Amino acid sequence: MEHxxxxxxxxxxxxxxxxxxxxxxxxxxxxxASDIGASSFDAAERADQAGLEQLRAAGVEVVLLSDAExxxxxxxxxGDVWPxxxxxxxxxxxxxxxxxxxxxx
Length: 105
What we know:
Largest sheet: 2 strands, antiparallel
Number of strands: 2
Number of helices: 3
Strand content: 5-15%
Radius of gyration: 24 Å
């Protein structure tokens, strides 16, 4: 079985080893959180696909945008629509929206 060093048991640096792929106790919560996140994204993708299939089955034409089309749509919405709705939703909401999207300056 292959092993790697995951920490030190003593100040004299006697390494503690664990099988490859088995995180040290210190990193297990991080690995678990990463696994949960990946699982959530997988579940969301499956739900999206199921929803699209239901729409198609109901006779709805589903149009998926390419990355370039989505980027153009995003630029147009932020450039044309957002200024028009800023007064309606208020400066605090616009600031939160921009901050959430990493658009604050």
